[in-house]
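Help!! Second protein's tokens look totally different from the first
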Amino acid sequence: MVNSKITGTGTFIPSIKKENEDFLNEDFLNDDGSSFSSENKVIIEKFKAITGIDERRYAKPEYTTSDLAFFAAEKAIADAGINPEELDYIILAHNFGDVKEGTVQGDMLPSLATRVKYRLQIENPNCVAYDILFGCPGWVEGVIQAQAFIKAGIAKKCLVIGAETLSRVVDKHDRDSMIYSDGAGACIVEKTSASDSGILAHASQTWAKEEAYFLFFGPSYKQAKTKDTRYIKMYGRKIYEFAITNVPKAMKSAVDKSGIAIEDIKKIFIHQANEKMDEAIIKRFYRLYKKPVPKDVMPMSIHKLGNSSVATVPTLLDLVLKGQIENQEVNKGDVVLLASVGAGMNINAIVYQF
């Protein structure tokens, strides 16, 4: 039986730390350009209570998304102990391309995956590099695609990366800008004949009616700014309601297809979007099985790293595997669930056994 497994992981966490207190002097506005009735201290306190975020990381001015992706890729390749020339695919999930400091234009020519291949100095032309735009679930979807290539017999080793510099596409007058951060995570997915490890099942969905535009590009809330410039915007309440309703069902679909009992799920690595939302998703997921939520089943990194979109799940996974999150570990034989939700609206989940 042909299956695929993760043989190495790596992450790049930017060094610039931005704490909540650093937003005290920002000019936050409503979407119509009017001022909030509350002072920033109150806004930030409410933000922390809902999202769980204390601080986030931003990339140095000289780094772009593809740079972060390259740094994470190097670590994943080293962790797996493979020769980069043996890679059949490089799949890079992002959303906005390379956005240089001080600009808002995304650069995706050549593709970011091609830029990483160039930086890795891979000479093999049969190593195919391409980007995937799938919102925040992009890295998880990249792993699913890598598995499909391996099962089809057209690949043996794939590099899957999730990288983003969201700090460069946010409207500083929008309080939601405090959610976003920069970062990158990567993994090597390899062919295996082992039946007791690897990807056991997955589920992917795209909801594209009204929910297709829950995340979008829009003008700054500062009316005086150039209206032709667009920033990442979202309908937070609608996303919350959509996620807590639909993500648990998709997660259950993947678990049911795997044949694994819910009691055997040791950890759930979920997209770090919002602490309260993630907690609600997990609670509803276990409610579908009429089970209580196990203690410490959901590792979290959002408190210190914020929401780095496609990078959150691979970063969280790498940190736990490397023993860098307190009271969290994964051991040989453990079954875990990887899940994400984001622009599209897209949802996916993978059941994986180590």
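Here's the second one for comparison:
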Amino acid sequence: MTARSIGQNWTLDIALAQGGFDALHPEAKGTMEQLGHDHTDFDKVFDLVKSGAMLPKAWATIAAQAQERAAEHERNGFARTAADLYTRAAVMWGRAQYSFFDSADPRKSAFRARANHCVERLGELRGGVVRRVVLDFDGGQIFALLHLPTGPVRNAPAVILGPGMDMIKEDYLAAAERYYTSRGVVALSIEGPGQGETRANGVTVDLTNYERAVSRYLDYLTELPEVDAQRIGMFGISMSGYWGSRAAATDQRLAALAAFEAPTGDFQTIFERAQPTFKANYMYMAGYDDEASFDRELVAHLPLDALVADITCPVLYGIGEFDELTPLAQALANYELVRAPKEIRVYEDEFHPLGGVAAEVFRFGAEWLERALAGDFHAPGRDARHYVHRDGRTTTGSATPTWWQ
């Protein structure tokens, strides 16, 4: 834990008690729905929460209810209904385990076991189109879920689904089916160093190993007969937009990148001005107990800076105008450094979760990747800029907020 997260924890409790989840992440419910959370489950959880300490109990309570209903439907032969409920339960068990920044905590391992059980059951009920993946990496293991289209598939495009720093591979269970496998695209939702099971099994994140983990996942995908090795892209949310940028700059097997909410500016904004839980979580992910060492050895070296100039594949960036983790001016400056075919969309009045446009963003990102992997958007010098207004209009040719002018 950090000094700020301990000293300011009471402010988060007040925010949760008075404003619920929206007080911490404005309009984030829209994004959570894209990540497999049913809005009724979400409301039930936060009806039980008056402080941060109550979150894991609330998530576990409602997760257990969904899992129990899933098992009842499974016993009665309603496979699809059961699979849907197992999906809802899995993402909630994932939220429950996230609250514990100690891999040895028995609650963390118990909730993780519940999530794994739910994924196993929904995979079985859906005919094996969701499969667990465990790969050796740097003396440890990294974990992922493979999502396959139904029926025979060969040489299909594939997309790596990268979770944000406080997300897990299960968060893409619903989106993988809705936006990728239903369109004949293979999806691989991953946990890189520092995330989920990968962190719980000892692999922490450092300055370069996340992109090397993406390369390891690329090795895996290129060996699958279902996948066309020349058509593999990546969709990244938040920190995976950052990590995806690093991966695209260092491994040219990535044929396209769609990155939303990517922290592309200084990391002081995230770790010193945003909610203190971000820094506490990243210190856990990186295996640091000493805050000063973390600041000196990791934070100072995290910004992308000129690294994005090494990206060669088509890239799409999307960000909220008031993203609390990356000032828009810094995001626009980073975009200027990209020399590959590129596109940026700035969403008016949106914050980091992009909750008000989440359904659009998930669909658009998937369709953009599908087209990019089919050969679109590769023209040298391509530079498409958009400012997406809250009232439905889009200003094309500039991503700068019109009120700046």
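Reply: Different proteins will give different token patterns, so don't panic. The beta strands are 130-137, 140-147, 156-162, 186-191, 227-237, 256-260, 315-320, 342-347, 383-388, 394-396.
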